[in-house]
């Protein structure tokens, strides 16, 4: 099975040795997205809710570039520097992803790239 690189200018460019996503068959593996604004590659703001919204916008853009939507996400991993902000994540996520929700994990970490407070990666299964 071949794999192909997914790329869009509607999400931040990779800031390391990775692709925004890789498609293998009907499965798409999305790299972690932090709250960078694609046009400037700067953090959207220091406000956690705004960071969460930007991350979901970035995830949405990569899903669309791969030929799917956030409804096709099968699994997401959410990394937070403060697990106490998880209720905000739930509220923001509900604006971008509807039921049935993907499987999910949430983990508190000590730090994220560029001082981000949230990062999300995921796996998407495209309709055949």
Automatic annotation (TrEMBL):
One Pfam family per UniProt: Ribonuc_L-PSP
InterPro entries given in the database record: RidA (IPR006056), RidA_CS (IPR019897), RutC-like_sf (IPR035959), YjgF/YER057c/UK114 (IPR006175)
Secretion signal span: none
Gene3D superfamilies: RutC-like (3.30.1330.40)
Top-rank taxon: Bacteria
GO CC annotation, single: cytosol
GO molecular function: deaminase activity
Name this polypeptide is given: Reactive intermediate/imine deaminase
């Amino acid at each position: 099975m071949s794999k192909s690189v997914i790329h869009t200018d509607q999400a931040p460019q990779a800031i390391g040795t990775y692709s925004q996503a890789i498609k293998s068959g009907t499965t798409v593996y999305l790299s972690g997205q932090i709250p960078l604004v694609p046009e400037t590659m700067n953090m959207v703001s220091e406000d956690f809710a705004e960071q969460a919204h930007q991350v979901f916008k970035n995830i949405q853009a990569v899903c669309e570039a791969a030929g799917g939507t956030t409804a096709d996400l099968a699994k997401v991993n959410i990394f937070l520097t403060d697990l106490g902000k998880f209720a905000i994540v739930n509220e923001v996520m509900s604006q971008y992803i509807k039921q049935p929700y993907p499987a999910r994990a949430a983990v508190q970490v000590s730090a994220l790239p560029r001082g981000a407070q949230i990062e999300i990666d995921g796996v998407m299964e495209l309709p055949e």
